[in-house]
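User: Could you go from structure to sequence for me? I need the amino acid at each position, not a summary. Structure tokens:
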């Protein structure tokens, strides 16, 4: 049985292919969705599930991402029998960086990614990698297997901080997962306050080092050829790890 596509239907193209007319979209989808119609596409647009661009004459045009999004919607309706509310929630999750679950997975809903490890840095994520992951507090707790009291304690002690939109990104997910793992050894959120304090001090040090570099760049109008932020943070973490290892070895 066909399943929703595994590629997130969001704008990530580096090139701009020629847009498709609504007739071309119908022709492309007809082999898999013979019942799709112009009125169906207009209905989905009216419901806010599609946002095709329009020409100066008012004609709809569809990008490859629009086509992938439409295929996802139609597949979810046909094979999953999802109502529009569920489809809208799934698309919102994908837009926020969650990944469509594999077709043979236990759940067909988008899932929180596990993250990418960097073997050279003792953290569960790559410091140089940008992510558009934006989780709600409920999604964060589910992904990190945190209960509500632990989440609230981590927030109270400043270890978990939402962004300006109230969501949590890749770094917050890494913090939550690490805190959850430490909880298995009896280490409670209140014990982790020194980590917050140490991190804030390291952030201040890095900002102090980077400030004159960025100032010179703004003054000359030139771009920084290689942003050293990731390297500096990696060295800070390496130093912290080395000091802890040395202290434990001396005991």
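Assistant: Here is the amino acid at each position, in order:
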């Amino acid at each position: 049985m066909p399943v929703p596509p595994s590629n997130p239907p969001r704008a990530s193209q580096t090139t701009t292919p020629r847009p498709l007319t609504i007739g071309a979209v119908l022709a492309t989808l007809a082999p898999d969705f013979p019942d799709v119609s112009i009125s169906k596409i207009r209905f989905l647009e009216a419901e806010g599930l599609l946002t095709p661009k329009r020409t100066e004459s008012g004609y709809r045009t569809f990008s490859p991402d629009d086509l992938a999004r439409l295929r996802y919607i139609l597949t979810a309706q046909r094979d999953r029998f999802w109502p529009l509310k569920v489809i809208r929630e799934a698309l919102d999750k994908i837009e926020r960086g969650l990944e469509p679950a594999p077709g043979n997975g236990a759940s067909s809903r988008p899932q929180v990614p596990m993250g990418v490890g960097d073997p050279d840095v003792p953290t569960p994520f790559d410091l140089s990698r940008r992510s558009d992951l934006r989780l709600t507090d409920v999604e964060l707790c589910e992904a990190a297997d945190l209960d509500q009291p632990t989440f609230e304690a981590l927030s109270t002690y400043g270890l978990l901080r939402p962004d300006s939109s109230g969501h949590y990104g890749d770094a917050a997910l890494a913090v939550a997962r690490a805190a959850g793992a430490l909880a298995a050894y009896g280490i409670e959120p209140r014990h982790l306050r020194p980590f917050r304090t140490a991190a804030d001090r390291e952030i201040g040090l890095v900002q102090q080092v980077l400030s004159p570099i960025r100032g010179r760049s703004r003054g000359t109008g030139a771009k920084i050829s290689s942003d050293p932020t990731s390297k500096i943070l990696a060295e800070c973490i390496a130093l912290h790890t080395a000091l802890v290892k040395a202290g434990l070895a001396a005991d």
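One structural detail worth keeping in mind: Residues 193-220 form the longest helix (28 residues).
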